[in-house]
Design brief:
The structure is a homodimer. Chain A has about 325 residues and is an alpha/beta fold. Chain A is built from 13 helices and 10 strands. Chain A folds into 2 domains: about 200 residues, 3-Layer(aba) Sandwich (Rossmann fold); about 55 residues, no CATH class. In chain A, strands 1, 3, 4, 7, 8, 9 and 10 form a 7-stranded mixed sheet that branches. Chain A has a 3-stranded antiparallel sheet with strand order 2-6-5. In chain A, helix 3 crosses helix 6 and helix 10 crosses helix 11. The radius of gyration of chain A is 21 Å and the shape is globular. At the A-B interface, helix 1, helix 9, strand 5, strand 6 and helix 10 of A face helix 1, helix 9, strand 5, strand 6 and helix 10 of B. The structure holds calcium ion (2 copies). The site of one calcium ion has 9 residues of chain A, from loops. Chains A, B: Keywords: Amino-acid biosynthesis, Hydrolase, Magnesium, Metal-binding, Serine biosynthesis, Signal. Chains A, B: Its cofactor is Mg(2+).
Amino acid sequence: MNRLLQCLLAVFFCSPAIAAEPLPSWNDSPSRKAIVDFVERVANQDSPDHVAASQRIATFDNDGTLWSEQPVYFQLSFAIDRVKSMASENPQWISTEPFKSAIAGDIQGVMASGKEGLVQIFAASHANMTADEFSDSVRHWLETAKHPQTGKRYHEMVYQPMLELLEYLRENDFKTFIVSGGGVDFMRVFAEQTYGIPPEQVVGSSVAAKFEMVEGVPTIVKLAQNPFVDDKEGKPVAIYQHIGRRPLLAGGNSDGDLQMLQYTTIPRDQADTTPRLGLIVHHTDAEREWAYDRESHIGKLNEAWSQANQRGWVVVDMKRDWKQIHPVRK
Amino acid sequence: MNRLLQCLLAVFFCSPAIAAEPLPSWNDSPSRKAIVDFVERVANQDSPDHVAASQRIATFDNDGTLWSEQPVYFQLSFAIDRVKSMASENPQWISTEPFKSAIAGDIQGVMASGKEGLVQIFAASHANMTADEFSDSVRHWLETAKHPQTGKRYHEMVYQPMLELLEYLRENDFKTFIVSGGGVDFMRVFAEQTYGIPPEQVVGSSVAAKFEMVEGVPTIVKLAQNPFVDDKEGKPVAIYQHIGRRPLLAGGNSDGDLQMLQYTTIPRDQADTTPRLGLIVHHTDAEREWAYDRESHIGKLNEAWSQANQRGWVVVDMKRDWKQIHPVRK
Ligand SMILES: [Ca+2]
Ligand SMILES: [Ca+2]
């Protein structure tokens, strides 16, 4: 079949792939060295710590780890924009909170409506519609919406060094997954094109769905039921349920990733000597991005940071370790 | 890295791979021809119906499609054997149904306890234990238990022609998944070694799980809560939730696969002209395996069979189409 072509292409591309230095947007720091050392240690055939390719599972949080998350989670911006665009079909919203604030673009007002208000905003923008309607709305939003402070498209606010890390891991036969508190259906719209991570390797928060034949057409409908929150203890559970094996490497940026980092890196017993890597992206760059950690309302990094030293997790200092934050627009 | 080695190996193995005829255990029948024609149509670079490799998703039911399912689903045999082995720790079972029947190896007695009885058997053998305890128990069972009629190990009762189909699809850059009513944690124990399907590509029925640190060790515990049944309407929902895109090919053997076959093959609108293949394994071989369909309690094939002609699904006749059923023991 195409195998011959594949072989020829593989040979053709061999030399440049060997020559290229990995992680070009990373400074030559201890963080970079720890990552490269780890990957070589598990991937090199001759290493005493070599790990079979099938076991090379890497899981990454998304918000604050692969893309920015300030001033609010991007998915909340989507939800609010979506409510705005649905306002004309829902005239009652104009006088009812939290919709009133959402339509006015008043994020503080939406936040003031508390958890219940947020649930209403998410239900209105994420459920009781077909899967196709939802993904179309996300796609449209990504193509049109701009971040209020940078003016960039939201999917342009991914981290260039993390894109390189994903690619470097895949070159070394890692299978890369997203395991994020973000909505799985939301992330799947852009994860393949943006991160090179196909839909089936995106794990996230979800709501129930149902199947029905609508005028002879098979249809999936998203329901406002049985929410699963892929955060904190939910992350190792989701990894178990969806991936079915323990990662070799996990990366996050907040206390929401604590249990995933523990699940990944803590040895199960004395015999469990396979090397594992935990990685925390620390937001330290107020100039090029944002700086926040222990006291932040979004992406709070406190307990996980405190455990990092004891657990041997690599804490990436964005300001010090990264030459570049977001990709340069072509 | 290993890329150079990969290239050399790829070149080395090129010629034999091209030369080998696919599906050697399949007779040269219309079913085989339909499969090969379809795969060439979507995989050949020059075909007008060429489909990008990333879209080549194939989903297969397990019981009755990839391995046998008579006289009872193999997972029920596991559950009953498991109850037996736990009987000494649960002395009250000896006088209580359905456990009494299970311990006596009386499957009819267990079945007579109805759905409630089965739920008790499954809860006792599948929940309230750690994930590792459960997978160890499945592994032990596979290594020791024998099918009551064939005397084979259960995982030896897979279908050789389907193993070849999985392999043929993967050679053509399909990503192969199991989407089965069987328990996901049960199937994952053997799916990689038996079918070449890694845990993350196994989708099945499940129960809730929780994460906890037990004496400093990260632990997943299976709970007898929130069962998800990956059957009938549950299959397209599970495909949506877990895989996140529509398969190009789906294979099943019973009415439990009807909605998966519909979801996979029915065009969404006029513009939806991508070729899709639906495949039904029809159990027609009472001599080499079992023969059953419209009236069977296990693997009932009625409505899906009735729709096959109209929908263009390939109905594989095991007796006529397969040279061999189970692999020859080495
Ligand atoms: Ca995060
Ligand atoms: Ca079946």
